[in-house]
Each structure stands twice: as structure tokens, then as C-alpha cells.
Amino acid sequence: MDVKDTYKTITKPSAEVLFKDKNSKFFGYAFPVTTEEEAKEHLEDLKKKHHAARHWCYAWQLGKSDFHYRANDDGEPSNSAGMPIYGQIQSFEVTNILIVVVRYFGGVKLGVGGLINAYKTAAQMALEESNIVTRTIDLKFEISFDYPEMNKVMRVIKENNLNVVDQILELDCKIIISVRKSEAERIYEKFDATYKVMIKELED
Q1: What is the DSSP letter of 92?
Q2: In whole angstroms, what is the distance from residue 170 CA to residue 43 CA?
Q3: Domain containing 90 — which CATH number?
Q4: Distance of CA 95 to CAs 4, 34, 42, Å?
Q5: Contact (Cβ atoms closer than 8 angstroms) between residue 97 and residue 60
Q6: The domain containing residue 102 runs over which residues?
Q7: What are its GO biological-process terms (predicted)?
Q8: Same structural domain for residues 51 and 115?
Q9: pLDDT in tens, the chain (204 residues)
């Protein structure tokens, strides 16, 4: 069984993009976020920057393998703004991201089809302006052992090229390693099978 252990995200906020339709202006932005709080802060900043705008519609998705998302139409007709924005997040397969599209109304109604197209296009343009990267999903393990077992543990770490995140090397030693999800079970078993060495997975 292949374990999916990569995800795509963006490294920094996108450049501002602008889509126009019948005098309405749609400004698109993409931000890297890891919490709902961060998403709210970016939204508040944009509301200050574009205080004369009519709508601040957005969608975000958080998580590396278990995703949760929110899409908000902010007063536009139901599903004409937030979901088209979210559709672009899905289409580009990115996560830990917030996309906001700010609308200035130009006096001419676009109709639901026109709105869906405008919000979708502004979101797509923001994503095209973003630096999308692929990252690995890593699990952290804590390895505990007494000092005499140090060589055994270090050998396994070296042979498997493991990434040491933190270590406390005293009489009772603790080393925290970070392992790619697809490798996690194999590495866990290696340490688990080592006499006098304890290993446990850490919650993120």
C-alpha cells in the first residue's frame, strides 16, 4: 500500500491579482496559513486595506492528510463565490492556504454565472502567481534509552539517514526524530525491536 506522504502548499503570499468584469473589480490574494486564526488575521487586514469594497469572499483549507475547509460567500448569492474559490484550491491540490477575493461592485449585476466565473478566475490567477511547493508529511518519534545504548541508537539513525530534531543526552537520553510518513512504520519497528530502547510517536 502506498502511503500518501506529500502535500502541496504555498511558501509566501501571492502578488495581488485583478480580474475585471462589467466594471466590477475582483482582487485576488493567496496566503499560506496553518490555523483558522491566521486566516482571520489576513481577512481583517484585507478588510482594512479594501474598506470601500462590497464583498470579501474566501475559502481556506487546512491539514496535511486530513483536510478541513471553509468557503464563505460574504453576502454574494449562495455558492457563487466561496465554493468557486474552494474549487480552485482543490484543482491546484494545495492545502494550508487561504484565498480571498475582494469585490468592488461596478454598478452592473453579473448574474450567478458571471459571479462564479469571476471568483473562480480571480482565485485561479492568485494561485498562478503563487510559489507552490511539495512538502513531505513527517511524523515525529521520541526515542528513550539509557546512555549505554547510545551507539546502537546512533547506528540506526545513521544507517537510515534520519533527521534528528532534538536531543537530550544525559544518563537517560531522549532523541526526537522526524520521519517521512511512508517510512514511519519501518523505522518504528527498527527501534522497537532494539533491546532497552523505547520509541513513541509524538502528537503534532
Answers
A1: T
A2: 47
A3: 3.30.230.30
A4: 14, 9, 16
A5: yes
A6: 6-134
A7: regulation of translational initiation
A8: yes
A9: 566 789 999 999 999 999 999 999 999 999 999 999 999 999 999 999 999 999 999 999 999 988 999 999 999 999 999 999 999 999 999 999 999 999 999 999 999 999 999 999 999 999 999 999 999 999 999 999 998 999 999 999 999 999 999 999 888 899 999 999 999 999 999 999 988 999 999 986
**Residues sharing a CB contact under 8 Å with residue 134, sequence separation 6 or more, in sequence order:** 6, 7, 8
From CA 168, how far away is CA 6, in angstroms rounded? 29
Instruction: Report d(CA 152, CA 179) in Å as an integer.
Output: 18
pTM: 0.83
46 neighbors 29 (Cβ within 8 angstroms): yes
Total residue count of the chain as it appears in this document: 204
What DSSP letter does each residue of 36-88 carry, written as one string? HHHHHHHHHHHHHHTTT-SEEEEEEEE-SSS-EEEEE-TTSSTTSSHHHHHHH
**What one-letter code names the amino acid at 137?**
I
32 shares its domain with 73: yes
Give how far Cα 49 sits from Cα of 83, 96, 118, 122, Å: 24, 23, 21, 18
